[in-house]
Automatic annotation (TrEMBL):
<feature type="binding site">
    <location>
        <position position="609"/>
    </location>
    <ligand>
        <name>Cu cation A1</name>
    </ligand>
</feature>
<dbReference type="GO" id="GO:0042597">
    <property type="term" value="C:periplasmic space"/>
</dbReference>
<dbReference type="InterPro" id="IPR023644">
    <property type="entry name" value="NO_Rdtase"/>
</dbReference>
<feature type="binding site">
    <location>
        <position position="613"/>
    </location>
    <ligand>
        <name>Cu cation A2</name>
    </ligand>
</feature>
<dbReference type="InterPro" id="IPR034205">
    <property type="entry name" value="N2OR_C"/>
</dbReference>
<feature type="binding site">
    <location>
        <position position="123"/>
    </location>
    <ligand>
        <name>Cu cation Z3</name>
    </ligand>
</feature>
<feature type="binding site">
    <location>
        <position position="314"/>
    </location>
    <ligand>
        <name>Cu cation Z1</name>
    </ligand>
</feature>
<keyword id="KW-0479">Metal-binding</keyword>
<dbReference type="InterPro" id="IPR051403">
    <property type="entry name" value="NosZ/Cyto_c_oxidase_sub2"/>
</dbReference>
<feature type="binding site">
    <location>
        <position position="605"/>
    </location>
    <ligand>
        <name>Cu cation A2</name>
    </ligand>
</feature>
<dbReference type="InterPro" id="IPR006311">
    <property type="entry name" value="TAT_signal"/>
</dbReference>
<keyword id="KW-0472">Membrane</keyword>
<dbReference type="GO" id="GO:0050304">
    <property type="term" value="F:nitrous-oxide reductase activity"/>
</dbReference>
<feature type="binding site">
    <location>
        <position position="570"/>
    </location>
    <ligand>
        <name>Cu cation A1</name>
    </ligand>
</feature>
<feature type="binding site">
    <location>
        <position position="609"/>
    </location>
    <ligand>
        <name>Cu cation A2</name>
    </ligand>
</feature>
<dbReference type="InterPro" id="IPR041114">
    <property type="entry name" value="Nos_propeller"/>
</dbReference>
<keyword id="KW-0812">Transmembrane</keyword>
Length: 625
């Protein structure tokens, strides 16, 4: 046996396959006539060959990633570092696969807002205890229809959605970090008259927007604070007292040109303890039919402080050591470092607002968002430069104080126009500095052309060493605005449903009122022109293979999946009725529709469940009225 063959045998199988794959790609390049150099020298090929970041078939990722689904109104679950899409969680959208927006259970969650067929999901964030992800909930906003949703991470289903009163366009969203996530903090971006009932239409001086505190458990708005300007992004500190938000349009302009006149805008800092005390003392008003306490946090209020920063700031991110809020300049090449330990003095009026700024490093064109590695370094996206700048916070503060020091560690090209970025565990105390995800808005030449509408481009960067290394490009659809990464061991998703889950509690109560045992009965209950059809399912058969109703009946079909095998999901699709839903193991799901056409109407299982899956069918027989 040759020494070369022995060397190959001594390589681990995965190591061999990885390196042969990279060599094979390079060979394909030569055969294709465009030269091996283009691929051998590409960062991705070198990273795959040298760093071995792939997650092999059958192996599991180290991190969960939750991506906002943007205009799709959903949340996408990815594994990191593989960047494999694992699941989509419908939130503000209609999803025919799961029946979201179609089933009774999902319509109860959507409430009156189910009339909206669109959503604009921006900022997903995971609940915390003592500044660490606790894996209980994920919250996300809908800018398009002024909503905030909560997702239970044990079942990966949305369980609460609220519409925020008195405001429009919820944009920035973050969570209270300590002692636990008591509040969801949500910025309403666009100012409106108060009340917005037709008064002051042509009087922008009477337009305002608000900072909103939402109770994370009961999902009701606890209080609102009126501010000057348009709120953008927000983040909370590690004491539970302070929250900061970037704020643009200090001019109160109604056009682009009008919002650009002033030299500076500001970061608004909110004192949560003072807000709670004011609410408890009754120092608030209510607006219209809303009972939510509304407080005045405009300039001069004891509840807020306004820190001047360069024009139109955008991202606002708390460092994992709890020392700084960093506001990203957008129209300035700088970011502003705000020392959180100076904020008590600022609220005591012992220092001027700008005294809280301890650094303002110049990074490049279009700084939008900053994330951290937990080792003292920050990573800021530069939208116009199409780069990520890695810089050292302590050195930037030294430079601000007059020292000759280079705080920039590296700039890495990304493709193209990066918006949000997010490093592993970075919003918690546990930032581990392994992976950085950059969500690039343009992809142009990175993928096969697919018409005038291009995909966007999620890029994975290895930040575990001194240098950033781009290791993955991945096309993605409209428009993943932001993401969050947490370790896989910080989540404990259910494998099958529990029969007493509150998600279908109202359906269970309806069955009990009808004298039905969901786990056993296959019966039809008629109540006037309302018909409730209860059936079980166990692969590959429904408990009822036919049921009869009359034309014009309102029919509710309730199905309980008796299978206990993990991953054995059933479906119910009624042909030509717009009815489709998922019923996972041990789940009960229901759907209501009108049987408006006489005749035979088949239903079938639309989730592949068995070798005889195609035969899992039944008939709805509709008698002519």
């Amino acid at each position: 046996m040759s020494e070369k063959k022995k060397d190959i045998e001594n390589l681990g199988r995965r190591h061999f396959l990885r390196n042969s794959a990279v060599t094979g790609v390079a060979g394909a390049g030569l055969a294709g006539g465009f030269g091996a150099g283009a691929l051998i020298n590409s960062r991705q090929a070198r990273a795959a060959g040298e760093d071995g970041i792939e997650v092999a078939p059958g192996e599991l990722d180290e991190y969960y990633g939750f991506w906002s689904g943007g205009h799709q109104g959903e949340v996408r679950v990815l594994g990191v570092p593989s960047m494999r899409e694992l699941m989509r969680i419908p939130v503000f959208n209609v999803d025919s696969a799961s029946g979201w927006g179609i089933t009774n259970e999902s319509k109860r969650v959507l409430g009156e807002s189910s009339r909206f067929l669109n959503g604009d999901a921006h900022h997903p964030h995971v609940s915390m205890t003592d500044g660490r992800y606790d894996g209980k909930y994920l919250f996300i906003n809908d800018k398009a229809n002024t909503r905030v949703a909560r997702i239970r991470l044990d079942i990966m289903k949305t369980d609460k959605i609220i519409t925020i009163p008195n405001v429009q366009a919820i944009h920035g969203l973050r969570l209270q970090k300590v002692p636990h996530t008591k509040y969801v903090f949500a910025n309403a971006e666009l100012p409106i008259p108060q009340l917005n009932d037709g008064r002051d239409l042509e009087s922008p001086d009477n337009y305002y927007t608000m900072f909103n505190g939402i109770d994370a458990e009961d999902m009701k708005v606890a209080w609102q604070v009126i501010v000057d300007g348009n709120l953008d992004n927000t983040d909370a500190d590690y004491t539970g007292r302070f929250v900061a938000s970037t704020c643009y349009n200090s001019e109160k302009g109604m056009t682009l040109a009008d919002t650009m006149r002033a030299e500076r805008d500001w970061v608004v800092v909110f004192d949560v303890e003072a807000i709670e005390a004011a609410v408890a003392a009754g120092e608030y008003q209510t607006l219209g039919d809303s009972e939510v306490p509304v407080l005045d946090g405009r300039k001069g209020s004891r509840l807020t402080r306004y820190i001047p920063v360069p024009k139109n700031p955008h991202g606002l991110n708390t460092s994992p050591d709890g020392q700084y809020f960093i506001a990203n300049g957008k129209l300035s090449p700088t970011v502003s470092i705000i020392a959180i330990d100076k904020l008590p003095a600022l609220f005591d009026d012992a220092i001027a607002p700008r005294d809280a700024v301890v650094g303002e490093p110049e990074l490049g064109l279009g700084p939008l968002h900053t994330t951290y590695d937990g080792r003292g370094n920050a990573y800021t996206t530069l939208f116009i430069d199409s780069q990520v700048a890695k810089w050292n916070i302590a050195d930037a503060i030294r430079a601000y104080n007059g020292e000759e020091v280079n705080y920039i560690r590296q700039k890495l090209d990304v493709h193209y126009q990066p918006g949000h970025n997010h490093a592993s565990l970075t919003e918690s105390r546990d930032a581990d500095g392994k992976w950085l995800v950059v969500l690039s808005k343009f992809s142009k030449d990175r993928f096969l052309p697919v018409g005038p509408l291009h995909p966007e481009n999620d890029q994975l960067i290895d930040i575990s060493g001194e240098e950033m290394k781009l290791v993955h490009d991945g096309p993605t659809y409209a428009e993943p605005h932001d993401c969050i990464l947490l370790r896989a061991d910080q989540l404990s998703p259910s494998r099958v449903w529990t029969r007493d889950d509150p998600f279908f509690a109202e359906t269970r109560a309806m069955a009990e009122a009808d004298g039905i045992t969901l786990e056993r009965d296959n019966k039809v209950i008629r109540d006037g022109n309302k018909v409730r059809v209860y059936m079980t399912s166990i692969a590959p058969q429904y408990g009822l293979t036919q049921f009869k109703v009359r034309q014009g009946d309102e029919v509710t079909v309730v199905i309980t999946n008796l299978d206990q095998v993990e991953d054995l999901t059933h479906g119910f699709c009624l042909v030509n009725h717009g009815v489709s839903m998922e019923i996972s193991p041990q789940q009960t799901a229901s759907v209501t529709f009108v049987a408006d056409r006489p005749g035979v109407h088949w239903y079938y299982c639309n989730w592949f469940c068995h070798a005889m899956h195609m035969e899992m069918t039944g008939r709805m027989l509709v008698e002519k009225a």
